[in-house]
Design brief:
Layout (H helix, E strand, L loop, with lengths): L6 H14 L11 H40 L4 H10 L6 H10 L1 H14 L1
């Protein structure tokens, strides 16, 4: 029985991995073992940060809303509570966008929130 060699499959697997690590620093993009470790680490960070990104954007929207509300003489928490009482179903992303881009519409929302108290 002839000995089966795996060189073609091995080379293909290694090339595929090294292609993914293109642009990594130093040996992390050239040596297979180093590249494999670096790629595994990078994938862990990517997985974690895809989830963390949602938290960070929500925090950004809340900061923007808070500063816009305070300029209008109201706190963020009272603004959100007022909108909930008035049954205004806009998420923080849309509200922050309105606060930055359309001040007239945001002022109307402030009045709705104040009126709902």
């Amino acid at each position: 029985m002839a000995k089966i060699k795996h060189s073609v499959a091995t080379r293909r697997r290694k090339k595929r991995l090294l292609k993914k690590t293109k642009g990594f620093w130093g040996d992390r993009s050239k040596q297979y073992q180093q590249a494999r470790r670096a790629l595994l680490h990078a994938l862990v960070y990517a997985y974690r940060d895809r989830r963390k990104k949602k938290t960070e954007f929500r925090q950004l929207w809340i900061v923007r809303l808070n500063s816009a509300c305070r300029l209008a003489g109201m706190t963020y928490s009272r603004f959100i509570a007022g909108l909930k009482k008035a049954k205004v179903n806009l998420d923080r992303k849309v509200l922050a966008e309105l606060a930055v881009k359309d001040e007239a519409a945001f002022k109307k929302l402030i009045e709705i929130a104040k009126g709902a108290k």
